């Protein structure tokens, strides 16, 4: 074999789908390849022309267009085009133009068809269009950990044991003993006034062994006391289609050991902590429990290595981005909750009720390691600044300083409860949000993109629920605001165009890298938020918002799937590179050098960024902005 053919063969060998081929196939290809050179700006393929060869980019870059002239894709070294035309009547489907001086290998059509017919892996690669390939990429990133792949419903082996709320505690204890269970659901009798089943509920409460010990025996209550007097009525539940890891997080976050399992609005069984532990292979999430056992900020700081180790273990166990994001957000909430508990121990009980808000990625359950703190305080409307604000200012500083100590850096934009602007009574927050929506300005749109992802993590969380309801109601009926928010969501464009496919940072500390948060996940979250607010969704998590948006008819199932897959894949690349940073002893960052990406990551990241680009263009047509102040 001549030196030129050896060079062709070895170059093909480095790039899929040719990297999947045997030496015999590669030798055959190298012997029949023809080479052509195209100057920058010249046409390579014209729509509707006959096509006889598969095109392989040896060097340079190529832009692919749709029939109407819209840019469809950018390709670089080692990538192919023309396959769809060869598969569909031998006519060029997408025109192509050289983005820069480009060298192309022409692979004869008969060889292409032979490979397609005889080599399954080759056929699978070339017949799948970009978004389908991206979906396969995310589908193949499944977890091997049973905790992260097993649905809660699979643990249910019997119907829940129940007792009437009119029964006495002796009867309840006898039933629990007879059925050999450590908890029993308390159900209202049919026809009872206020029966929860008549208003969408399905149970009145729950009694556990611990309740009988603490509330009956320790208090010396008579055994004929009605169970309704000792039951826990504010029952924490889990849905049967949630994963075991989510059930574990709920138990740890709410400090409960038993969870009724719901199918829609009805309980179908109960699980306890021992059920979940039997499925746990590594206790990577028990750092949450350790947080609540600490009695000082210094002790909490000592848990930071455990948080990083938990993150790395989840990534190495192939958890998907939603699982990692939920777990890390739960850890972050737990730090906030316990710091608030410690703060109240130090300062005394709060003078009026309050709700501490998590904002941004923590509120969305999409938090990773490289993050700052965004938070706020909602105070009861009985709040009197002169009498009460000194307490809440001190509490805010205690918590925010504590969060900085355990790794959540101070917000550079001062979006923290230490800022008196973000430490206000409920009615002021309601005025803020209503004004931002009805009279959008550049600053209020920025505020909206931060504060409209909110979650109550401690205190009277019903105040957070009220704010979520107000946002969903006001935004969905204010198209001018949605248009302005949509325009803002187009500001951060995906990094397509350099390094044959990516645009990189031109200067600074992260020169020659791409920021997967600022140019990837963040603009995707912005796009999804606009659709969610338009549909009236109260969900905070981006994946849940997509479900609501499809259900409301604001996005097709296909469009939502594209956005879901793009967000999932970019997030996966981001968290895996952060895990590698930690294992190498480096501080995790959001920036990645494209040269460190595998060909698999490059190809599918480009697909994901193209989905983002298309989604941003769609916003222009879907929502019309009004002028801002």
TrEMBL record:
SUPFAM superfamilies: cAMP-binding domain-like, CBS-domain pair. Gene3D superfamilies: CBS-domain (3.10.580.10), Jelly Rolls (2.60.120.10). Residues 17-116 form the Cyclic nucleotide-binding domain. Keywords: CBS domain. It comes from the Bacteria. CDD domains: CAP_ED, CBS_pair_CAP-ED_NT_Pol-beta-like_DUF294_assoc, NT_GlnE_GlnD_like. Residues 156-225, 231-287 form the CBS domain. One of its GO terms (molecular function) is [protein-PII] uridylyltransferase activity. This is Cyclic nucleotide-binding/CBS domain-containing protein. It comes from Natronospirillum operosum.
């Amino acid at each position: 074999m001549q030196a030129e053919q050896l060079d062709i063969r070895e170059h093909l060998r480095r790039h899929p789908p040719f990297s999947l081929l045997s030496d015999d196939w590669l030798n055959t290809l190298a012997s029949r390849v023809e080479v052509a050179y195209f100057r920058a700006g010249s046409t390579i393929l014209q729509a509707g022309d006959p096509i006889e060869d598969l095109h392989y980019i040896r060097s340079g870059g190529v832009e692919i267009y749709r029939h109407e002239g819209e840019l469809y894709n950018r390709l670089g070294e080692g990538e192919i085009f023309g396959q769809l035309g060869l598969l569909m009547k031998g006519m060029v489907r997408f025109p192509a133009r050289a983005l820069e001086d480009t060298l192309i290998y022409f692979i004869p059509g008969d060889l292409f068809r032979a490979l397609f017919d005889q080599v399954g892996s080759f056929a699978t690669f070339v017949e799948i269009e970009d978004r389908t390939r991206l979906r396969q990429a995310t589908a193949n990133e499944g977890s091997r950990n049973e905790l992260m792949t097993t649905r809660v419903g699979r643990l249910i082996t019997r119907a829940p044991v129940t007792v009437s709320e009119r029964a006495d505690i002796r009867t309840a204890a006898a039933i629990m003993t007879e059925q050999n269970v450590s908890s029993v659901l308390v159900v209202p009798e049919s026809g009872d006034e206020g029966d929860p089943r008549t208003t969408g509920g399905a149970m009145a409460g729950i009694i556990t062994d611990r309740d009988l010990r603490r509330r009956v025996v320790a208090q010396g209550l008579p055994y004929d006391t009605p169970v309704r007097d000792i039951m826990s009525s504010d029952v924490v539940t889990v849905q049967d289609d949630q994963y075991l890891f989510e059930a574990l997080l709920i138990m740890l976050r709410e400090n409960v050991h038993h969870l009724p399992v719901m199918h829609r609005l009805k309980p179908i069984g109960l699980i306890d902590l021992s059920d979940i532990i039997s499925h746990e292979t590594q206790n990577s999430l028990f750092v949450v429990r350790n947080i609540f056992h600490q009695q000082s900020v210094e002790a909490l700081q000592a848990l930071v290595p455990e948080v990083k180790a938990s993150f790395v273990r989840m990534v190495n166990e192939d958890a998907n981005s939603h699982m990692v994001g939920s777990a890390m957000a739960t850890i972050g909430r737990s730090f906030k909750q316990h710091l608030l508990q410690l703060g109240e121990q130090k300062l005394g009980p709060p003078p009026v009720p309050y709700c501490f808000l998590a904002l941004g990625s923590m509120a969305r359950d999409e938090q990773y390691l490289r993050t700052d703190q965004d938070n706020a305080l909602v105070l009861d409307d009985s709040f009197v600044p002169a009498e009460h604000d000194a307490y809440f200012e001190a509490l805010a500083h205690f918590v925010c300083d504590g969060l900085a100590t355990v790794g959540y850096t101070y917000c550079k934009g001062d979006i923290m409860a230490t800022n008196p602007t973000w430490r206000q009574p409920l009615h002021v927050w309601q005025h803020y949000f209503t004004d931002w929506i009805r009279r959008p300005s550049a600053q209020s749109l920025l505020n909206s993109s931060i504060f409209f992802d909110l979650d109550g993590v401690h205190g009277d969380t019903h105040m957070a629920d009220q704010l979520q309801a107000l946002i969903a109601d006001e935004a969905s009926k204010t198209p001018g605001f949605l248009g302005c928010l949509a325009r803002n969501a187009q500001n951060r464009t995906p990094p397509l165009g350099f390094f044959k496919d990516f645009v990189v940072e031109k200067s600074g500390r992260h020169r020659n890298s791409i920021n997967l948060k600022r140019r990837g996940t963040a603009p995707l979250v912005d796009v999804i938020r606009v659709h969610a607010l338009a549909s009236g969704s109260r969900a905070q998590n981006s994946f849940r918002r997509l479900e609501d948006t499809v259900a409301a008819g604001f996005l097709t199932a296909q469009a939502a799937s594209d956005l879901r897959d793009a967000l999932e894949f970019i997030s996966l690349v981001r968290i895996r590179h952060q895990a590698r940073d930690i294992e190498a002893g480096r501080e995790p960052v959001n920036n990645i050098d494209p040269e460190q990406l595998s060909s698999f990551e490059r190809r599918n990241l480009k697909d994901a960024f193209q989905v983002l680009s298309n989604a941003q263009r769609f916003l222009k047509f879907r929502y019309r902005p009004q002028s801002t102040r």
